[in-house]
Amino acid sequence: MKDEKKAPKLRFKGFTDDWEQCKLGDVADITTGSRNHQDSVTDGKYPFFVRSDKVERLNEYDFDTRAILVPGDGRIGEIFHYYNGKFALHQRVYKVDNFNGINALFLLGQFKYSFKKHSLRLNAQGTVPSLRLPMFTNWNISIPNITEQERIGSFFRKLDRTITLHEEKKHQLERLKSALLQKMFADKSGYPAIRFEGFSDEWEQCKLGDVFVERNQKTVADKKYPLCSFIAHKGVVPKAKYDRSFLVKSDDKKYKRTELNDFIYSSNNLETGSIGLNKFGNATISPVYSVFMVKGNSEFIAGLATTHRFIYEMIRFRQGVVYGQWRIHESDF
User: Fold this and answer.
1) Is the pLDDT of residue 146 over 90?
2) Left, alpha or beta for 98 (phi > 0: left; psi -120 to 50: alpha)?
3) Burial degree of 214 (CB within 10 A; 0-12, 13-18, 19+)
């Protein structure tokens, strides 16, 4: 949020004063709860904040306040709850409240922006990252006047709510898509349960070998065919910044070549979504994947390939091999 000039690079109009530094312990109270996870009940009256992003329930409450709640173990610096009202609290969840000269929503933004870096730096020597009270009280933060704090806090709160609404809409569309995939592709009768208006003919059957051509081309990764990963539900994506390819000593290691709209699957991870189209373009991927060129409408094939019936039929051909892995031979496919 800040640079060396003690002011952010981007500000709301009308604010020019420098930001001041203070310790969190000077502007808020920090303490923990006293409960255990097993205290939770189903359909309890009050929220019960534990060491995860999931909020449990309880029929009793410990606090009635506006607070920022931070788990002290696990995904350090990634989970922050903001709550105003009555709630119960786990013994390893920190409560930050009684804000003095600092806006709670502004402070929530500060937590999301820099607390992870701060806490992990202090945990550099630990085997299991965990938070302790001094990490909170001694945390140096930069703050503007209260009016600017309120503007910033309100702005990011609105963004969070917009993101939540879009995520919920995304989940609804994903559920709708999943339901339609099972209804809009023909079953053994030769007819789908749901069709677009004007279509009534029976669907024809064919073998996948009539529409797929195996692309078993191996090559080294280069600029034209960069090394990529095939990620479940995402498809072909560039290798992550911190991948393990540096462990490969040979510069001439061969990978499988794939091109736009190729059909790819992993025999070992069909149930978790490792099947679909290459929407990235020219790439090389691990040889463990099966790659096919598609003759015809690749988008239709991609939809068909994610139906429960299609996955079930593929699994029937799956064979066990060494090290607990599975394989579907391309000829069987």
Assistant:
1) yes
2) left
3) middle
